[in-house]
């Protein structure tokens, strides 16, 4: 399984804080967009393009950060 996206709740992270977290935790800078997509109430940082027919799993971490795994 690989991380497809990392989502940060807007209520707990500003865009700058979410970007800082992404960099601090070793995610490659070029994978996030200058203006990441907003999914509902989340800042979304896509790591991999979605693959048609893949299975997706979500795991919630501290402060509401969610990892979307693709298999």
Q: Total helix count?
A: 1
Overall mean confidence score, pLDDT: 87
Number of strands: 5
- Beta-strand residue percentage: 35-45%
Radius of gyration: 12 Å
* End-to-end gap: 5 Å
Computed structural class: alpha+beta
| Strand order, largest beta sheet | 2-3-1-5-4
* pLDDT < 50 stretches: none
What is the string of helix and strand elements?
A: EHEEEE
Helical amount: 10-25%
Any idea how many domains?
A: 1
Shape: globular
Largest sheet: 5 strands, antiparallel
Task: Summarize, please.
The protein has one helix and five strands.
Explain the overall architecture.
By secondary structure, the chain is α+β, with helices and mostly antiparallel strands. The chain has one domain (2-70). It has 1 helix and 5 strands, in the order βαββββ. The protein has one helix at 15-24; strands at 2-9, 38-39, 42-46, 56-60, 66-70. A 5-stranded antiparallel β-sheet has the order 2-3-1-5-4. Strand 4 (56-60) and strand 5 form a beta hairpin. 18% of the residues are buried.
Topology:
Blueprint: E1 2-9, H1 15-24, E2 38-39, E3 42-46, E4 56-60, E5 66-70
Antiparallel strand pairs: 1-3, 1-5, 2-3, 4-5
Throw out a few tags for this protein:
71 residues; alpha+beta; five-stranded antiparallel β-sheet; 1 helix; 5 strands; globular
